[in-house]
Amino acid sequence: MPEHTTTFAKALSAFHAASEDLQHCTRVEMLGEAGKPVQRRDALLRIVGTDNPLTGKPHSASSAETVANEEPVFSLYLRACTDAVISRMKAETAVQAARWNVELAIAEHSRMRETVGV
What we know:
Blueprint: H1 3-47, H2 61-67, H3 72-116
Helix pairs in contact: 1-3
């Protein structure tokens, strides 16, 4: 198999793999975002009624709202959501780079055809 064909095949394969990774990362991000309201509600339920160190009284629903993002379980969930966004952004970049490699392989093939006269 000619080198330019192998280069193109490898570039196309890398583009396909990067696209599949992007699909996976997007799915994970969407699932995380979809679950966020339920996770937040659960965090509020864990906080309401516990001691509020600022007032010395139990947390009300409104005071629980102010500290929900720091609740340990919900905080980990938010971190996982942030990580999913970062992974999706990196996957988008990988898809773009792979696309450029495919375009470069096509351009190289065209240049070789012009040079050789095929």
